[in-house]
Amino acid sequence: MSIQPSRPTQHDLSVLREIAVGGTSPDPSAAHLKQITAFNVERVTRRFFEEYKRLFDHVRATIAAENPGARIGPHKRNLTGDSQSLHAFTQRLLGRIIFLYFIQKKAGWTAIRTSCPTCTAAPPSTPARTFTVTP
Which residues on adjacent β-strands are paired with residue 120? Predict the structure, then answer.
């Protein structure tokens, strides 16, 4: 597990809370059991999908409520009122967001490349790191 101390994720913080041991001389067996529980892949996967489903349902409902009758696909039938189209659109949207998050988390992929003379980063005070390319 790799943690950026200046930007820990919710998952990082959750795992650290779960493996924390108290006292001056913690029981090694109890510490080991905490680690096994915290890093249980099945438990993490189940928790991820439960949270993802909650988020998916929320995003789907928000898209439908905020964009009544909006076209969300290439065909005339692809409207927010069509349950299948709305489901597919929401899946595609969240899939793309997860992919971008994955790319962002990869070390160096979003770093400023000094070899690119036309790439500049936004000032550090900007909330989100953005890049512009000038012609």
Answer: 132
